[in-house]
Amino acid sequence: MRFPRPLVKVIATSLVGLGLAAVAHAQTAWDMPTPYPANNFHTENIQQFAKEVDEATGGKLKITVHANGSLFKANEIKRAVQSGQAQIGELIISGLANEDALYALDTVPFLATGYADSKKLWQASKAAVEARLAKNGLKILYSVAWPPQGLYSMTELKSIGDLKGMKIRSYSPTVARMIELMGGQPVTVQAADLTQALSTGVVSANLTSSATGYDTKSWENLSHYYDIQAWLPKNIVFVSKKAFDALDQPSRDALLKAAAAAEERGWKVSEEKTAWYIDQLKANKMKVQPAPEALQAELLKVGEKMTAEWVEKAGPDGQAILDAYRKLK
């Protein structure tokens, strides 16, 4: 049976339309809010991760990265992914410490001060963190550490007494507690707002990494950087379990493979760039130095007190993680 030519054209057009619809239906688009600038090493790593996912899935899964808090602020990202407003996101684990003391572990001062120990701390605590986030319908894809945290100031510091009453930027409850114990006044400022906070005098000191110091051009407002190496906080990239489960198996496999590569790459870059960031602070005339002996001794005492406080809050789970970590050292 032969169809009239106009009808053949209609049928052909319909089939093409159905084919395009099928392709469109097969493609999944995810929004990914992140808190840090596009040129931050975490964000650059995420951009590469998203590219590798796109390539590995043949374009079936596309992740659009929204850097620098442009879609959701840092403290909004977890809820956005939980509620389905975004499918995937990045945050600093310690930012969740008000929800559960366990999330504060990697910002307990002087517990893990180098990359090797930081990896061991993550090894000891990862399963517990995953279990808690799973209760919120979230799945960790990978984690990457920041460079060691230092102390920035616009004045010379010789002892903790020099910090008394000073407004110091905090980014998590644990950091706020440390500032209180140092005699300072904690002021919560997200990374995206730090440059403005420094330039307007909202804060006059800062506890953060050499990376964030570089990103925010801290030398424009602060003069001293004390390389106290207090801790290495970690970021996690996590996904809605519902969104993850909705993917077909090949896409899930590709996502997990890309995540594993991003974790390995991210830790390596973080460690490699630490010295570079320090050099940039020096090149921009910041006075970079270790903490004076008296200040460092006082800070270590703060760390001991905060370790005890953390164990008390975290309970038996926390003590078990701490014991497991110390066995790995």
Automatic annotation (TrEMBL):
Q: Which Pfam families match?
A: DctP
Superkingdom as given in the UniProt entry: Bacteria
Q: Does the record's keyword annotation contain Transcription regulation? A: no
UniProt key word Cell wall biogenesis/degradation: no
Q: Which GO terms describe its biological process?
A: transmembrane transport
Q: Which InterPro entries match?
A: DctP_fam, TRAP_DctP_sf
Q: Could you list this entry's UniProt keywords, alphabetically sorted.
A: Signal
UniProt signal peptide: 1-26
Protein name, UniProt field: C4-dicarboxylate ABC transporter substrate-binding protein
